[in-house]
Amino acid sequence: MTTTRFTEKQLKTLTWIVTGLVLVLVGLMRRVKIPLPEGVDFSFLPPFYSLLNALAAVALLASLYFIKQKNIKAHRTMNFTALGLSVFFLLCYVLYHFTTPETIFGDADGSGVLEAAEAAAVAGIRPYYLILLFSHILLAAVSLPFILFTFIKAYTEQFEAHKKLARWVWPVWFYVCITGPICYLMLKPYYQ
Question: Strand, coil or helix: what is 102?
């Protein structure tokens, strides 16, 4: 039985298309809100997609462990698990943000506006939250194509190139997977 393998060029083109689509969706979700039918509520999604991010981090740790043990099959499985969890996270994250108003760090009354008293109450920690959040978002956007390129190198059996990329991509992906749940836990008191 023969299998169809995509060329590296085709996969790189697909990577850029997927990256572009994801960036457009993430950009639009802050501006476009899709009304939900009466009784439909996606407020359960933030803890769920944060858990997906945390599980992706665990899969990445397992992937690193397995490659250090030279267990390539388990390493590959954990990488696919991390990628699958990250894709599922992204779908849930985009769904939530397209259908639900933003939650603002420090907005204790849930009005959607950070009033002066609320800002003063979180003034000591809000800058740290924002730094963590912005670094998370920026690195998630920048790392996406490189995560996929790293997969492509393994898929096309360019294992030395895969290894070189993974040395840089893995820590960034891991950081993104860890900081997502931390941002959620910091924001959790302000969800309505």
Answer: coil
pLDDT digits over 71-124, tens only? Answer: 999 999 999 999 999 999 999 999 999 999 889 999 999 898 999 999 999 999
* Cα–Cα separations (whole angstroms), residue 20 to 25, 39, 126: 9, 33, 30
Nearest to 50 by CA among 180, 179, 176, 143: 180
Q: Where are the domains of the chain?
A: 43-190
Q: How many CB atoms lie within 10 A of CB 143?
A: 20
Round the CA-based radius of gyration of the chain to a whole number and report it.
Answer: 19
pTM value is 0.89
The SS3 assignment for 13 reads helix
- The residue type found at 51 is L
Rounded to a whole number, what is the distance in angstroms from the first to the last CA of the chain?
55
The position carrying tokens 């992204």 is 90
How many whole angstroms separate alpha carbon 1 and alpha carbon 49? 39
Q: Tell me if residue 174 falls in helix, strand or coil.
A: helix
The two structure tokens encoding residue 103: 């939650």
Give me the DSSP letters along 105-132.
TT-TT-SSS--HHHHHHTTTTHHHHHHH
Q: Which residue has the tokens 């924002």?
A: 130
